[in-house]
Amino acid sequence: MSHHTLRPRSLRRRDLLRLGGLTAVGLAAPGLTGCGGGGGGSGGDDELQFMYWGSSFEQKAVEAMLKQFEERHGIPVRPLYTPREYETKLNTLVASNRVPDVAYMGAGMAYRLAEQGKLINLYPYLDKYPELANRLPYTYYWYDKDVLLGTQTANEVILLWYNKQTFAEAGVEPPPAEAAKAWSWDDLVETADRLTFDQEGRRPSEPGFDATRVRQFGIAANFNTYGWYPLVRSNGGDFVDETGTKYVLNSPEAVEVFQKLQDLMYEHRVAPTPAQTGNNAPTTTVQLQTRRIAMAIDGQWVLLDMAESDLDYGIGVLPSFQEPLTIGFAAATVAFTGDHDDQTVELYMFHNDPRYVDLYAKGLWMPLEEKYYRDEEAIKSWIDNDAHPPEYRTAVVDYTLHHSVPIFDQRLKNIDAISEVLTPAIQQIQTGKAKAKEVLDALKPKVEPLLQGWHHTQEL
C-alpha cells in the first residue's frame, strides 16, 4: 500500500479574507459555493486533489480512474489515499485550510462542512450533468432548499450471503433471491438450526448439543446499524418518528426484532456470541469459506472479496417481517469550493461513473443512477460478468429498486452525538447483558434530548 504525503494547499489573500469573514458571522449562508477555503491544488493552480479511503484494491481502481481523468481532461490529480484515521486527518486539513478538492466523507462531517460554507453546491450543475439529476432519490445529501452538498460515493444494500456448498451438502434449500419469496424469521431460524453443528455433529435442537464446542454456526447475528435497521423497518418499526424529534426504537415492533437477534445467539444457539467470535473476527468471506458460519447478513460490498476468493457463494434477500425490505446507503463524496469549481465538479462527476471505474463490475460498488436498475443494457453493463452470480438481478438489482429504504443516519441531525449513546446500548443486547426491551426503554431519555430533526430533503 502506498501512502501519499498530504501536501498543503497555498491560500491566497482573498481566501484568507473570505475565511475571516465566515468566522466573524459564525455560519455560512445556505448557498455553499464561494464561502470556503482556498482553491488551487497544492501543487499549483492546475492540480486537483482527491482524498479517499478503502482497501488496496480500491486504491488501485481509484488511481486508474484518476489517470483516465488526467488523460481525458488534461488536469493532473493528486490521489490522497488515507486508509487509516481518515476523519482525524481530514479535520486537520480543514483546520489548516489545506482541503482537498474532492473527498469521501461521513454524513456528520459533510453537514458540518456544508454549514461552514466549504462545499460546492451541486444543485446548479444538475442541468449540465443529467447523470447527477437522475440518481436514486435517497442517494442525495441535501443541506437546504436547492442546496445539494453531494451524493453517496456509490450505493450499497444489505443482503443475506451464504456458502452454496454448505447448503448443498446439508440438503437444505438456500435463501430465496426474490423479495416476494423472502423467508419469515422462523424460516431463517429453522434453516440456521439445520446448519449448526457441534463437534459431534449434533444440532442445537437435538439433545446433548454442546454450545461450547460448535464446529459450524448457521448464521452470524449482525448488530451493526446496517444489520438491524432493515429488519426493524421490515417489521414496521423505526429509530425515530417522522419529525426526527421523537425516539421510537422501544416500540413493540423494534423490540421484537432486537430480541429475535439476541435469541439467535443465546436461545437458539445458531449464531456465535461476541465471546465466541472474538475481537478480531475474520471477514464474512473467510468465515463462510472456512465454514465457521453458513449464512451472514452483510453489505453488497462483500461481493468484491467473494469474487476474489474461491468460495462458491450465493446471495439471498433478507428475511421479512411485515414486508420485504433492505436499506440503501453509503458515505458521501463532496467537492470543496475554491478557485476552479467547474474543474472540481468535472472530477466529482467522473470519479464514480461506471464507464470509468471497474469497482462496479468487480462488485465493490453499486451505481447511483436509476437507469442502471431499470434499463436492460445499462444493467448488463455492470452485472453481466463472473463476479455477479445469476441471482444478483433479483436479489440485488430488483430488490434495491423496489424494496430499499434510506438508512436514518444519512439525514438525521446530530448523528455523531446520537451514535455515541446508541452504539454501546446496542452492544448490551449483543453481549446478552440485558433483554432488548430493558435496553431500548432505557435509551429513550438518553437519545431524545439529542434529537434535532431531519436535514432537508427534496425531490428533483
TrEMBL record:
Organism lineage string: Bacteria, Bacillati, Actinomycetota, Actinomycetes, Propionibacteriales
Matches recorded under Gene3D superfamilies: Periplasmic binding protein-like II
Pfam families in alphabetical order: SBP_bac_1
Source organism of the structure: Thermasporomyces composti
UniProt-listed PANTHER family: ARABINOSE-BINDING PROTEIN-RELATED, DIACETYLCHITOBIOSE BINDING PROTEIN DASA
UniProt name for this protein: Carbohydrate ABC transporter substrate-binding protein (CUT1 family)
